[in-house]
Q: What sequence folds into this?
């Protein structure tokens, strides 16, 4: 069996209610604290650019015997760059190869830019989509789900949490509480909220949320690197009072030095990894005891192959993993669920809300969600069947 063709497509899909659940970020904006360029911490330094739609790069690989594998690259903006990496750099490496040689192909793709310092970003995102598609092909070739190929399905259902409630300011606290209640009514037992303002203000939001939803609902906090070390310590102490599941990305990802003492200082778990790539980057954090929970992203950190290695690495340190799943389509979600189903040290898995057009909307059979769990399909490969007409209508 050989790879005959590899195609990539940039898709842009509207959110369900035509606006994202989390803020679309462009240029720095003035807010309650005045000019963001003059405040401290300088939050504008962590404000990534997003579009107002779900943007991703889809990979379609076809073999000479007609098997089609699907993959996805997490590219929330400028997907044409990732597409160019696939078409011009990676396709010549994989076309003509045996798609079942997943490990050698991963190493060959990584080697194309390794000595040039390309350890993440668009290169790894492009690789991720190709790697996922190769696993999908292998599963279809042997008539088994990817979870089985990863060593066996440990669980038939993956625990998931809803992601993500927006920061207060985009919506008032009453609206945030109403959204939280709606998620609970849908069956979620945990959700994540975007914070990252003044610790005292964030504490007030958590106090209202905890009072509204009760003590048995899990609340995770994501701040996108908005704090410095001193503020993160103060915020973490406040958050501990409300039984927060974890504090995600409290510091800038480059600030490894402060992550370790922060994790040691706080009782609340320190989580991160959505912005990291490869086992080598994660090992630096794990070796310094900087994370209590790792969150590799299957469509960003090197695909199923590398995320499986990262999760197993974390397990040797006694650290759980929770797949990071951001804006994207059902392909991204299915890959995360198949990997999560096979992971020994899985804690939970992120489940984006407000993305049904991009999720179930491109599937012939929707995901099965109930009572805070997604049932993992036993169908071959990713366990999903793509409605190509529904997907291709969003190709840019």
A:
């Amino acid at each position: 069996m050989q790879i005959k063709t590899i195609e990539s497509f940039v898709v842009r899909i509207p959110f369900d209610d035509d606006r994202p659940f989390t803020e679309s970020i462009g240029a720095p904006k003035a807010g309650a604290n005045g000019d963001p360029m003059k405040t401290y911490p300088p939050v504008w330094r962590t404000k990534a650019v997003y579009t107002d739609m779900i943007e991703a790069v889809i990979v379609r690989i076809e073999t000479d015997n007609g098997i089609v594998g699907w993959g996805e690259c997490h590219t929330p903006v400028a997907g044409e760059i990732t597409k160019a990496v696939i078409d011009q750099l990676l396709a010549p490496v994989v076309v003509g190869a045996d798609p079942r040689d997943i490990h050698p192909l991963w190493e060959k793709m990584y080697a194309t830019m390794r000595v040039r310092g390309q350890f993440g970003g668009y290169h790894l995102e492009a690789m991720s989509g190709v790697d996922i598609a190769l696993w999908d092909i292998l599963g279809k070739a042997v008539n088994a789900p990817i979870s089985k190929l990863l060593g066996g399905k440990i669980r038939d259902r993956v625990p998931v949490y809803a992601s993500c409630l927006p920061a207060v300011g985009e919506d008032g606290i009453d609206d945030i509480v109403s959204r939280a209640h709606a998620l609970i009514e849908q069956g979620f037992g945990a959700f994540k909220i975007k914070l990252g303002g003044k610790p005292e203000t964030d504490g007030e939001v958590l106090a209202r949320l905890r009072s509204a939803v009760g003590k048995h609902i899990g609340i995770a906090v994501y701040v996108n690197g908005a704090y410095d070390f001193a503020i993160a310590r103060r915020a973490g102490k406040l958050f501990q009072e409300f039984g927060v599941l974890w504090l995600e990305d409290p510091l800038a990802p480059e600030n490894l030095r402060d992550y370790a003492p922060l994790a040691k200082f706080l009782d609340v778990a320190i989580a991160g990894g959505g912005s990291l790539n490869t086992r080598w980057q994660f090992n630096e954090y794990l070796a310094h005891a900087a994370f209590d929970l790792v969150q590799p992203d299957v469509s960003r950190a090197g695909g199923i192959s590398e995320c499986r290695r990262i999760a197993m690495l974390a397990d040797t340190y006694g650290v759980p993993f929770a797949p990071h799943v951001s804006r994207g389509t059902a392909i991204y979600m299915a890959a995360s669920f198949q990997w999560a189903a096979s992971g020994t040290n899985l804690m939970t898995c992120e489940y984006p809300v407000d993305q049904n057009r991009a999720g179930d909307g491109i599937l012939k059979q929707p995901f099965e969600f109930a009572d805070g769990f997604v049932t993992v399909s036993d169908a071959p490969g990713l366990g999903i069947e793509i409605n190509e007409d529904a997907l291709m209508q969003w190709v840019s």
Observations:
- The chain is about 35% helix and 15% strand.
